[in-house]
Structures are given as structure tokens and as C-alpha cells.
Amino acid sequence: MSNKERHWEKTKGLMMLTLAIWFVFSIVIFMFGESLNNGSFLGYPLAYYMCAQGSIIIFVVLIFWFANRQEKIDEEFGFAERGEDE
Amino acid sequence: MAEKFINRKDFINNLPRIYGTYTGGFLIFIILMAIAEQAGMTAKTIGIMFVAFTVAIYALIGWISRTVQVDAYYVAGRQVPTVFNGMATAADWMSGASFVAMAGGIYFGGYTYMAFLVGWTGGYVLVSSLMAPYLRKFGCYTVPDFIGTRYGGNAARFMAVVVLTLASFTYVTAQINATGTIASRALGIPFELGVWVGLVSILLCSMLGGMRAVTWTQVAQYIVLIIAYLIPVFWISNKNGFGFFPHFMLADEVARLNDLEATFGLVKNAAADIKAAGVPGGLKSISVPHSDVPAGGMAAWKFISLAICMMVGTASLPHILMRYFTTPSVKAARKSVAWSLFFIALLYTSAPMLATLSKISLLDPNLPTGLIGKPIAEIMQIEWVNAWINVKQAFIADFNGDGVLQLNEWFMRGDVVVLATPEVAGLPYVISGLVAAGGMAAAMSTADGLILAIANALSHDIYYKIVDPKADVRKRLLVARALLIVIGAAGAYIASMRITSILGAVAWAFDFAMSGLFFPLVLGIWWKRATRAGAVAGMIAGLGSGTAYLIYVGPKFMAQTPWLGIDHLRFGIIGAVVCLVVMVVVSLMTEEPDSATQKMVDEVRVPSGKTILGKAH
What is the pTM of this model? Predict the structure, then answer.
């Protein structure tokens, strides 16, 4: 496998993992909203909290994490951009 | 001179200082207005000052950012730093509807409505992992520019422009409508005139400098709108002792609302009663629990399907994607998506809190602002109640004739939650003026992004790439600006006619975009085998089937029973699935793309190296 192919394999893996986490917090948990609401976080009913703040905060953190991971992958295979003017 | 200044590296390096000074100046302006209010300046003058002052600043930024260069006009010279692009995207994203209507939607719709919150934020995960970095590497000026180059041929490019125009135009009339409403209220002019005043303000920001001017005004607009949204939320929460940091401290109030709902009883008024009482159109009473999850699988599916449409739609809306063409690098584009969502989250996580604060202010009989359970004659003496009833934004219908206000007898328009909460909670008028300026900023920034997306696609992809490829730079930019005026005027004309029957919901824009653009964009990057014929067929079939289904179920059209709960807000599910299937089948039936195209896709997947399309093309 060439360098490029291995880089793309890893990139795809990261994309899949990111989307899996996204899928859980945007879709899966809201399939069980009714029972989720029996739990609580900071005193809020849990399902209410997740759509008001919880999932949104997780998305923000997830995208920052994704961007950092992808930068590492690019550096590992020598595909990182050198200067900003490139 | 300004042209020289804004091109220099100094300008970019000085951005934190420039916008820091601007923010400080704006805060000083708010304090000055507060002092003027104490000194006896009328509410009306304060409203005019707020809107006029902020719009004048945006116009000034628009003028300073004027340009005669193609890459500055289309992609802001690709030098917008990540954090600032994040702010600009947040302003681009959060429309007048987000600012004015979202808290009201949650106020009336409760948990079910909050599917919009999840959808309008979760979509950015798709933008960052599937789209933005690769489109940035491509180096396109517009979204159809990518489709046209990746798949080749004018048919693909043309279809992408059709989808873009349909989605963006559905959205933009609502924005111009919002600027008109706010301008007319703040300046005391008729709505029809307000729409044109709004349009002129919008064009002042974008006409001379294109993307560059829109970028720097959007950053300024974000600062105004976020200050205007957060100050009332924190102020009300602290004033009433609900908690110093409302986002994490309103659990007791949410629980209290649950109790109050049980005490007062949630009654859904019969349509006939509402009609007989003469409740003005668009006004609602609270009939849905604040934090309870509705029972049943269908309710869960409705929540999830709406969230899916909004998420996939977000990742296909050209006016958002094109913001990531302006960053200096691929790496910066990725980071910039994260910052965008961070700045959006500041407002979106505050909206449910504002809805909670506003609701408890009105409902709780222990609070001085509480209305429910009080004699109606007494309530009618309250100044703000009178003012909003006079303009048909609020209404009292004494259904049981006992002279006491019940929960189901108090009607309000959703927008009032944001616009009137400062007054309801007894904050000084300067805060209401600030909120008007914030709403104006939100509506203007989104309208600018949308109009620019349409005008750029028509000038670059239709005029330059298809009609007259030999046109020189001067002529291209002239056409781009002329189109900006034409599209803006068309939007304002439709908004001023107030034919609400042809105006769709904002959600439609997301559904149109996901029906026609999502899979051609994603597969263009992630599937080398996707062919031109597949993409063209997918776009036509996706947009066609989505639109046909909208006409079939749309309440203003044929109003047939939706299939599996997929109603007119969710028609993108049909369109996108058809688009995917047709695109894959047709791609597999046609010959695989030539080696040059495959090599191009390989190049897009690697961040380093030159962009596919040249700096100026």
C-alpha cells in the first residue's frame, strides 16, 4: 500500500469513528428520550438537558478533537501543509 | 488607501485589536444609551439610535472592504483566520429566525421543538468530517464550481446552481422580511418601506467588497447579536435570583414549570373556540409540557427525522460551505468549523434558558411578573401587556368568563418571547433597543450570505463558466454586483407583498439543499466511481422527487396525509434517498470516470500541495 493509500485508510477510519459518536448523540439517544428523561443531570431531566445543551456541547468538543486527530494523521504521513500561504 | 490597508498582513495580525476596540466601543455606546434613557430620552429615539448606529458601522466596514480583485471578491482572498471565520459563519448561520423565533419555538413547542437545536448544531460534524476540508483543498469559488469541475460538463454545474438557487432563495425572503419587520418597528416606518430600508442596508455590506466585505461585517454583526442575546438572559436570571450562570442553574425553574403545568392544567383550545374569541392569527397559548418527552415511537421518530433533515441540510447549504473557502489552509478550514459551532452554541444553548426564564416570569404567581391566576382587569392595566395587545402580538380570551386569567387564555406570538422579555422582566428600555439591533444583525448577516451565494453562483458558474468564458475581471465583477442587486430586489419585492401563502418554512431550504446537493458533494469526494451521468441524474431525481413530495403533503398545496410521518418539514428525506439510489445506480451503469478525474479526487484527499483550481480562475 502506498503512503497515500495508508493515509486515506486512516483518514477514513477517523471519519467513521467521528460519525459513529455523532450518530449516538444526535440520533440514538433520542430514540430513548422517554426513558432517558427519568435520569437527570445538573438537576435537569436528562433528555431535556441533552437536546438543550448536552449534545451541542459534545458536538463542539467532537469537532475540535476530530480536527486535532486529522492534523496528527496528516503529519504522520507527511501531508501536513507547510506554510499558511501554500 | 483602504484597499491597501486591508490587503496588508498587518490588518490580519491586528484583527483581535480592531474587533476588541469595536466591541469596547459598542459596550460604551450601550452605556451612553442607558445614561440617555435616565436623562429622559424616549424609547423610540433609543430604538432608532441602536439600529441606525449599528447599520452605519456595517456599511462603513462594507465600504472599507471594497475590492476589484476576483479572489478577494469571491473568497475574501483566502486569508480569514480560523476564529474570525468561525464568528462570521456563526452570524451567517444564525438567521433572524434563530435570533427572534427560536426561544419562542421552544417556549411553545417544548422538547419536540428542540429537535431543531440538535439538527442545527449536529450538522457541523458532517460539515467538518465529510465536506469543508476537501472543498477548501479543491480551491473552488462556489459550491457548483466543485460539482462542475469534479464531474465535468455544464449540465452538472447548471443543476447544482438550480438547487442552490432554490434552497437559498426560499431562505432569503424570510430574512429580508425579518429586517423589514425590525426596521419598521425601530424606525417607526411602514413595513413595506422597512423592507427596502433593510435591503439597502444588506447591499451596503456586500456590494462593493463581495465575500471580503461580507466576512468583516459578519464578524461585527456576530459581536452585536451575541451581546444582545446574552445580556438579557444573564440579567433576568440574576435579577430574579434564579442563578448566577443560568445555563447550569435553572434546574429548579424547569422542575417548577412542571409543577405549575400540573396546577394550571395544559389545555389545548378547540379551533372553534379560538375563532369565536377572535384570537389574531399566529398567536398561540401554551399547551405542550416544557420538559416532558412525548410518549410513543412515532413522537421519537418525528424528533429524529426532523433532526436528520436539519443536519444533512446544514451540510449541503452553499452559503455555509462557501465560508470555509475563505480560510488560509485546509487545516484552518477544519478548525474553523469547530470555532463556528462554538460560537453558534453560545446562542443555541442560551435559547432554552431564555424560554424557561420567560415562561416562569409569566406563569409563576409568586413572582411580581406572573400573570396566570390574576384578575384580567388588573392585567390589562400593565403597560407592556397593553402595548403588545394593541399591535396584535398578544391576546386575552376569557373562555370560562370568570374574569381570571387561565393558562389557556393567554395568547402570544412566539417572537414576543425574545422581543418582549426584557420589558416583561422589567429591564430598562435600552435592553429592548439592544435586542432590536441584535435581531437586525442576525437577519442582515444571513441575508448577505444567502444573496451573495446566489449571485456568485450565477455570475461565476452561469455567466463566466457557461455563457462568456472570455469575460475579463472587470466585467465579471460588474455582472456579479448587478446580480446582487437584482436578487436582493426580487427578494425584497416578494417580502414586501406579504404573500405568506407562497413563503415556505425555513426548514424547506434545508430539505431542498439535502435533496439535491448532499450526495453529489459527499460522493464526489468519497467515491471515485461517481460519474457525471450519476451526479446529474441524482440531482434531477432528488430535487424532483423531493419537490413532488412537498407538493403532495404541503398543507398549502395538496395537503395529503404524510407517509410515515414525513411531512412538509421533512421532505428532504425522500429527496436525499432517491438522489442516493439514482446516483449510485446510474454511476455503476456508466463508464468509470477517466484517470484525470480519479487523480483529481486523490489530490483532494491530501491536504498539502496546490489547490486543484488555480488562485484566480
Answer: 0.92
